[in-house]
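Course assignment 3, question 2. Fill in each field.
Student: A.L.
Task: Predict the tertiary structure for the chain below.
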Amino acid sequence: MEKHTTEPTLESSPTWERLEAWLRNKMREWMQELLEAEVDELLGRRKSARRKAVDGAPGYRSGHGKPRRLTLCNGTVTVRRPRVRGLQERFESRLLPLFARRTPEVNALLPELVPPWARPGRLRFGPARAAGGGRPPVGGDGESAEGAVAC
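Answer field:
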């Protein structure tokens, strides 16, 4: 009788219960591969390949930046942007701009998810007062009629 010493991994065989986590992990791996391919295109060589002696593209890889969370419509993934040094200008990814944390689709969706009283420009006295009519406290100095400090 044969004895199998390897066990199937959860990463390669998703189940219904772990489908969301598996898809999110695959999305993270795909995003990381796209970022690496973008640097390959910029430098004209793959990772760990030598630069051509005379006419090689300037610049070199310098590891990865801190892990960044990127919110997509199907969840949040964590990616690490590759660092590139030795260029004339600063490297900025076309796929993942420097300070982007959400995709444009998520940004467009957020105003619909925020309650009307919490939208920018609508808050004058805080959420509790905005829901209750928006009038300032009786004393005008931040205290209500009972003497408790208002928010």
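Instructor remarks: The CA atoms of residues 92 and 109 lie 26 Å apart. The first strand starts at residue 60 and ends at 72.
Grade: pending
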